[in-house]
Amino acid sequence: MAAKISFQNVLDHLADSKKDIPQSHLKFYSDLDPKSLQLFLDVWTRVQLPRKLILLDALLSQLEADTVVYYEDIGRALLDDSDGEVRARAIRLLVESDDPKLAGKLINIFLYDEELAPRMEAVQLLGEFILLGELEKVKEDQQRKIEDALISVIHSEDDSILRKRALESLSFSSRPEVAALIESAFERVDPAWIASALRAMGRSHDERWNENVVSMLLDEDPLIKFAAVEAAGQLIIEDAVPILLQILEDEEEDDDVAIAAIWALSQIGGDEARTYLVALIDQTEDEELVEFLEDALENLNFTEEFNKFELLTLDEDDVEIDEDE
Q1: Backbone angles phi, psi at 190, to 5 degrees
Q2: Domain limits of the chain?
Q3: Neighbours of 252 (CB within 10 A)
Q4: Coil vs helix vs strand at 236
Q5: Cα separation of 190 and 161, whole Å?
Q6: Using CA atoms, how far apart are residues 313 and 46, in angstroms rounded to an integer?
Q7: What SS3 class is residue 190?
Q8: In this predicted structure, what is the pLDDT of residue 1?
Q9: Which of 295, 294, 231 is nearest to 268 (CA)?
Q10: The CATH number of 188-307 is which of 3.30.365.10, 3.10.300.10, 1.25.10.10, 3.30.300.230?
Q11: Which of 23, 42, 21 is nearest to 32 (CA)?
């Protein structure tokens, strides 16, 4: 009979850099009580940096693969770690958090951290908190602070990539000035800024951007095209379907763009999209692609069922009644 493993055994194993970290140990780091978390932090100070990163990457992979595990306790505890890469990974462990108490800490990291990696992760998560604010799950004044922080960086001379990510995260907001910031980015010459503006358009779910997105679907720059294709799906632009099909018929098309086009079709839905996806499954021998196409078809089914549900649940005030009938 195999000996029962305790959390202390797992921590002792972590401290030994000569040993691999078994997959079976990862569950022990989930949902730690205060005492276990303190034991972890005590050992953490003795673990070498490469070993720390190996563990955190393993936890992140497990978090993506397993919906049951919960590593937020470790994520919160490591936000003040002395290493920037550790702090960045700690923020990623909080990706599913909806705790508004984190907002202040994330704003501080985003604005003042000395290293770029944690700031890049913080800006992504701040976008999620803005989305929660739009759904009235975060207080209005707290959402305002996040938006102000993002706007201050967009207008700054800070790292260009960070400013683009700030724009994309801000685009979840319904604040009036956001549209002007997106339009300004879209009008730049730099393809990276145009692509960022397109991503922001898609996240905004505002149909005012439909024509801008469609106009870029066949752009020669793959970065712009990819962002436009994704935005077309997010905005559910029906007029984009023929162009998306045209993109998929091009045998020389970039693989990432093609994959994005397939998923966009699944988001928009319709008979043309369904027919194409079903035919593509029948013609494809690549097992990974078939699996992706089946996921896309399942998403298309969900999209259409959701649309039907919305139509069935319209308020009476939304339905025009002809009183002469």
Answers
A1: -65, 120
A2: 188-307
A3: 4
A4: coil
A5: 12
A6: 58
A7: coil
A8: 41
A9: 231
A10: 1.25.10.10
A11: 42
Token duo for residue 58:
């393993």
| CA dist 79 → 32, 89, 138, 154, 272 (Å) | 16, 9, 21, 24, 48
Count Cβ atoms within 10 A of the Cβ of residue 192 and give its class: 0-12 exposed, 13-18 middle, 19 or more buried. Answer: middle
- Dihedral angle of Cα 73, 74, 76, 80, to the nearest 10 degrees: 150
Give the pTM: 0.89
Contact 146, 114 (CB under 8 A): no
Residue for token digits 């393809």? 191
* Contact predicate 78/43, CB 8 Å: no
Query: What is the C-alpha separation between 120 and 129, in angstroms, rounded?
Result: 15
Q: What is the pLDDT along the chain (325 residues), one digit of tens a residue?
A: 455 889 999 999 999 988 999 999 999 999 999 999 999 999 999 999 999 999 999 999 999 998 899 999 999 999 999 999 999 999 999 999 989 889 999 999 999 999 999 999 999 999 999 999 999 999 999 999 999 999 999 999 999 999 999 999 999 999 999 999 999 999 999 999 999 999 999 999 999 999 999 999 999 999 999 999 999 999 999 999 999 999 999 988 899 999 999 999 999 999 999 999 999 999 999 999 999 999 999 999 998 887 766 656 655 455 454 444 4
* 136 within 8 A of 98, measured Cβ to Cβ: no
Q: For position 145, what pLDDT does the model report?
A: 97
The Cβ of residue 26 has, within 10 Å, a number of other Cβ atoms equal to 20
Assess contact for 70 and 31: CB atoms under 8 A: yes
The DSSP secondary structure of 73-137, one letter per residue, reads: HHHHHTTT-SSHHHHHHHHHTTTT---GGGHHHHHHHHHH-SSHHHHHHHHHHHHHHHHHHHTT-
